[in-house]
Amino acid sequence: MSLLQIQKDYSALQQLGYKLDLTRGKPSSQQLDLSVELLDLPGRSDFFADDKTDTRNYGGLQGLPEARRLFTNLLGAPQEQIVIGNNASLALMHDHVAFALLKGTCDSSEPWSKQGEIAFLCPVPGYDRHFKICEDYGIRMIPIRLQEDGPDMDEVERLVASDSSIKGMWCIPKYSNPTGTVYSDSVVERLAGMKTAANDFRIFWDNAYGVHHLTEEKISIANILERCAAKGNPNRAFVFASTSKITFAGAGLSAVAASKENIQWLLTRLTPRTIGPDKINQLRHVRFLKDEVGIAALMEKHRQLLAPKFQAVLDVFEAELSNLKDVSWTTPKGGYFISLDVASGCAKRVVALAKDAGVVLTPAGATHPYGKDPEDRTIRIAPSFPGLAEVQQAAKAVALCVRLAAEEKLQSK
Ligand code: PMP
Predict the structure, then answer these.
(1) Which GO terms describe its molecular function (predicted)?
(2) pLDDT confidence of residue 1
(3) In 104-220, which residue ranges form alpha helices assigned H by DSSP?
(4) CA of 208 to the centre of ligand 1 (A)
């Protein structure tokens, strides 16, 4: 199709006056409705935990045992090695970084902030809010290429072996944000066993999408805590998860699992910070979700709502973009995102064109440290929030913008 024709189609698109938003991976209100029963729990008469704790009162720093039990499968750890947080796992991750900076980890000789400039390894494309934590605290970010089966481990091993300023690494091991990547057993094994120059190195294992399958294939991956322990590095990983995309994104539970020593360290850090978490929310989640089987049943309902939206985007991309050179996209088996790679140097242009046609996309670059995608290629697509018809319209609009940007680039050569 000629540039002129694509421009005409684009003008027609602009005339439609769309107001569509594919930016953040938020659950739709239909998904939130699946957990509306939570709003009636625990009710006025029975707000006591199994051990008769009155959940309305102070205390219970580590979280109710039954709430910790709820997370054992998702985090892959016994309840003694789990701490329940409030509504955001991001806040837990942030606090772990801040605590390590101010006080050091249980293996640090000094706080991270007293050890000169420190750095984190950041698999890319990745999650902008992980990168924001590092940026805000002046932690240097080192991008690592995310491959089909996880981060480029040759590069990771090479860097951590020689550079003791590398203190951490972000990992989204399953249905990664935004590519849907699943880490292979061999990647997990190498992360667990690699030699690190820093003896207080930590992996931030963000299992945000552990039960968020989009297909019938319910993928499970190697247990990082077990593998680290087996390799003689028991304190290496902090494992995070939350119910943000299981129940309510703004009012769920978060949790972290780690070695006994790490958990003791965390509880010591939390002691001056709070007298205890929101145990009423813990109790209502236990009563609503019940157990691993209850969680799986609810996630199946989410899948019924989400999978058609993902399929709609993939169908449109296949129909409209498959013959375009240098354009590709991921086909995730879970999670909340599709990652679209356009021709080099075109991502910003596509996002700007989409905006002018009423479709808001995550800013180009957000998937990379400092918001800078050196190739200007990657665009994160989040189809969960709008209705199915809107997702389809938005995908068609994005595809047209990709074609227009590609044709413009070709003509400018
Ligand atoms: N980690 C990842 C990888 C995410 O995609 C998100 C949500 N977009 C979060 C963490 C945020 O989780 P929470 O709501 O528990 O803070």
Answers:
(1) L-aspartate:2-oxoglutarate aminotransferase activity
(2) 77
(3) 128-136, 153-162, 185-193
(4) 6
